Amino acid sequence: MRMTTFLLPVIAASVAVVLSSVFVVDEREKALVLQFGQIKSVKEDPGLAFKIPFIQEVVKYDDRILSLDTETIEVTPSDDRRLVVDAFARYRIADVVQFRQAVGGGGERLAEDRLSSILNAQIREVLGADQVTSDTILSEDRRGLMNRIRDQARASALGLGLDVIDVRLKQTNLPSQNLDATFARMRAEREREAADEIARGNEAAQRVRALADRTVVETLSEAEKEAQIVRGQADAQRNGVFAEAFGADQEFFAFYRSLQAYEKALMGSNSSMVMTPDSEFFDYLKSDRARQ
After folding, report:
1. 179 found inside a domain
2. Are residues 105 and 37 in the same domain?
3. How far apart are CA 111 and CA 104, in angstroms?
4. pTM of the predicted model, to two decimals?
5. 149 and 123 in contact (C-beta within 8 Å)?
6. Are 132 and 145 in contact (CB under 8 A)?
7. How far apart (Å, rounded) are the C-alpha atoms in residues 188 and 79?
8. Is the distance from CB of 99 to CB of 61 less than 8 angstroms?
9. Mean pLDDT by 10 residues, the chain (292 residues)
10. 78 near 130, Cβ under 8 Å?
């Protein structure tokens, strides 16, 4: 009974010592074994590993590709047109020993703060360089600018044990205080272009209408001229017929013309005439020759 009472604490203590000396390294992690703050070993392969209990401690870091969003900053390209820019980066802990020496106990949070500062500095340097305008940043050429930011940030981040894999610009907008002025300028330019187009359209319409009016006048004039010629020719032909008839029988021609006059004067169902009985208009009606 006494032996059992003695062995149980010993067994429990032994189990505790064994358990505290064993740790597991996940395939997504890297581990450092520290003794009084000094690095004693690095565990990068997944599986079981051992340490001295109560003396050594284990610090684990993520071995996956991590993401970092930078704060929004303002940059001024070479054309002095300010832009609001933010970015995101993909990185990983490449050298866990150098990472620990650089950030100490601050861990990934401190590393991200430093990496964010590096990225912002490189964004300002690359986007604010000579020959880099706001149009360049907003065009397809921004891919080359992002690659330059990535390469320069990678060189600076190596001192932290980090490998910057990729950098992408998320937004490149005008500052809010400049948006209204920019939109007003764009609106004014579009309105000016619209006014120019309307003026050119009105000018073209005036030319078309003037040409059409001139064509109408010329066509009507030509038609009127031809009509006058035809009427003149018809009148001449009629007068020739009348002259020939008059020459053939003057008395009959006079009689025919009088009948035409009677017909025109007495047209309609309610015609009336007032004249003296000895009027020459009715010579043929009261003439002895007419009765013959």
Report:
1. no
2. no
3. 10
4. 0.55
5. yes
6. yes
7. 21
8. yes
9. 61 63 84 85 83 83 90 83 87 91 87 92 88 81 88 92 92 69 78 91 92 92 91 86 74 73 68 66 57 42
10. yes
Where residue 111 sits, what CATH number does that domain have?
3.30.479.30
Q: Residues 158, 165, 30, 121: is their CA dihedral positive or negative?
A: positive
CA distance 23 to 19: 8
Give the helix ranges, DSSP H, for the chain: 2-21, 96-103, 107-127, 134-138, 142-157, 176-248, 250-265, 283-286, 288-291
CA distance 9 to 66: 45
Q: Which residue has the tokens 């505290």?
A: 20
Q: How many CB atoms lie within 10 A of CB 197?
A: 10
Q: Are residues 205 and 234 in the same domain?
A: yes
| Burial (CB count <10 Å: 0-12, 13-18, 19+), residue 275 | exposed
Q: Is residue 143 part of a domain?
A: yes
Phi and psi, residue 187, nearest 5°: -65, -40
Listed residue (141, 147, 102) closest to 123, CA to CA: 147
Q: Classify 130 in phi/psi space as left (phi over 0), alpha (psi -120 to 50) or beta.
A: beta
Residue 5 located in a structural domain: no
Q: What residue numbers bound the domain in which 269 lies?
A: 251-292
Pair 111, 103: CB distance under 8 Å: yes
